[in-house]
Amino acid sequence: MELICKEYHFYNNGIYKTISKLSPEGWFTDIEKVEPSIRIFGTPKQVDKAYKDYVKMTGLNLNETYDFKVEPKGSWWYDIYGKDAESINKKTQEKLDKYKELYNKQNKKALITTI
Fold it and tell me: Which residues have C-beta within 8 Å of that of residue 80, sequence separation ≥ 6?
């Protein structure tokens, strides 16, 4: 059984959050765009269904999607990462191992996380 992980980045769709920051003049409050992003882990069929259900529930429009995986040496992303490629791959593998553990604890149901 093949397990995959995909990242989905959505357009803002008019969603904002309130932020407070300290500046030299004191505290100020402003609004900031929220650009929702999720990661889905499971079988290809589960990931596809979870993505479609998420879009149907939220009404969000997809901007970009990426495979979340360890990049092999010589791949485009590996070369973009440069000297950090091995440490990024290590962190990615740790997250994928954690997702797999949670997936198995959840009776092998698709796992959706925010990123």
Answer: none
pTM of the predicted structure, to 2 decimals? 0.80
Tell me if residue 57 falls in helix, strand or coil: helix
pLDDT tens-place string over residues 2-19: 999 999 999 877 677 787
State residue 9 phi and psi, 5-degree precision.
-115, 130
d(CA 64, CA 97): 24
Angle at 65 between CA 35 and CA 47, to 5 degrees: 105
Domain count, the chain: 1
Q: Which range of residues forms the domain containing residue 24?
A: 4-114
In 3D, which of 65, 55, 49 has the Cα closest to residue 8? 65
With b meaning 16 or more CB within 10 Å and e meaning fewer, what string describes 29-64? eeeeeeebebbbbbeeebbeebbeebeeeeebeeee
